[in-house]
């Protein structure tokens, strides 16, 4: 057969070149094109799987943080139960009249700092009391030892060897108990054990109301320590209790070298000393990176820390990542091989057959009437598959965008109160400043809120802030924006409001808070109140949003200076040369002594 009579694509090209219809061009194999499309498809799949694995890792880490925090809170509950037990035991013992014999009234506490040290020889012993203390310890494991001190701080008797005659007059828990207040405190070094210890003190009140002495219990720290939850945390877990200075009181697993060491500057301890509770990921004292949950122990400033080895969380994820990678690699090889075979049989062969038909038709030869398979028919399933993949990727992208929008919304809200936070308040204020013809701002501060926290505790303080936020949000106008901009500080942005309208709303807010009647013994009125500063202006080039904030802030201080539970309105807003120096941050006001 001659060259011109050879069938196939080469014959077609030679025929077309001979007829001058086309010039020779460089061609690319269809199989290579299919391989390229397969590589593109696998790249998209791998990218999607990579994103899924990253999200899974983040989700697992977040779940681990929640689990560690829940375990920590359970440990705090056990501590509370132990605390109730020892307080009940001390209160029961102190209520017995035999604990305050008549000879106690002949001694007075050594309150004079110039007085000589108390003389143990002047302190009578009471062996009948000591025998009762020993029997109590047999049934109350939460106490390691018990002791009775005279009013001068000298131990009359105790269950620990050589406790009698010790001088406890310099201990804070003894001094507080001598004022008639039960207390629990930590000491860096116990006189008896030489180690960091926790002591509980109960005043012994004689008939007539006089504190005749103090009943002291050294708390069994192991009873406060939730060892039964250690099995839930897996290998590499760590637990410890630290005192307010970051000094280690007890650890699990036991490590005598850590007891008494100050770790307040360590990354896994430092956050717990400045916050009530939370989680942190950091290296432990042994260099192992852990997820730590921490929480302040009630009635003391000690903190419980529970850490779980980060590797126990990441190892399954890394294993899953490796398995997913190997699965994708194997799937890629199978897909490439399948596409090569399928392309040869389903696409290349039909195209060659069609080319032969065309060549024969060009030469005028008779051809069969049977219709040859077309390329479009063979490619259609691939097109449908790509369409489905595109729809799935679009759906996932839309879901991710929706999730991002939800996260963005959550980032603009204060987690405690559910109203706007400082970040979103600043953003809205900046937008309104550029569009509103008139704008007013209120700055509100809860009066003496530090005293409220000190008296009722942080839990009640958080509840108070939530109730105030709800009252404020339900009292303002529909167009106003209420935000929590500090610990106990709130702000209200009033677009289009004059100073008169702002003052009227401020007075209604003050009355709404007053109507809540939240008890606050630290205030003359006996209930929680707020002070409000108001300012309003027209946005002009010569003044700024900071000037409006400064004016409202100064009005707030005028309301505080007027006795609190008051509203004061700034007569005007003027430009401040250095507004940043004039603005007192909400965090400073939240921690100030005057509230």
Condensed summary:
This protein has about 600 residues and is an alpha+beta fold.
Q: Please report which band the strand proportion falls in: under 5%, 5-15%, 15-25%, 25-35%, 35-45% or over 45%.
A: 15-25%
The helix tally amounts to 16
Strand order of the main beta sheet, please? 11-13-14-12-15-16
Query: What is the alpha-carbon Rg in Å?
Result: 39 Å
Averaged pLDDT: 76
- The quaternary organization reads as single chain
Which bin fits the share of residues in helices?
40-55%
List how many beta strands DSSP finds: 16
Regions with pLDDT < 50 over 5+ consecutive residues? Answer: 1-7, 102-117, 119-124, 369-373, 579-594
Shape: flat
Structural class: alpha+beta
Largest beta-sheet details: 6 strands, mixed
Tell me the span between the first and last alpha carbons: 105 Å
State the main characteristics.
595 residues; 5-stranded antiparallel sheet; 16 helices; alpha+beta; 6-stranded mixed sheet; 48% helix; 16 strands
Task: Describe the structure in your own words.
The protein is built from 16 helices and 16 strands. With 595 residues, it is an alpha+beta fold. The longest helix has 65 residues, at 30-94. It starts with 8 loop residues before the first helix and ends with a helix.
Topology at a glance:
Elements lengths: L8 H10 L11 H65 L32 H13 L3 E8 L4 E4 L13 H7 L4 E5 L9 E9 L5 E9 L1 H4 L5 H4 L4 E5 L5 E5 L17 H5 L2 E7 L5 E8 L6 E7 H53 L12 H37 L8 E2 H14 L3 E8 L2 H8 L1 H18 L5 E4 L4 E7 L3 H18 L13 E8 L7 H17 L5 E3 L9 H4 L3 H6 L4
Parallel strand pairs: 11-13, 15-16
Antiparallel strand pairs: 1-2, 1-5, 3-4, 4-5, 6-7, 6-10, 8-9, 9-10, 12-14, 12-15, 13-14
Helix pairs in contact: 1-8, 2-8, 11-12, 12-13
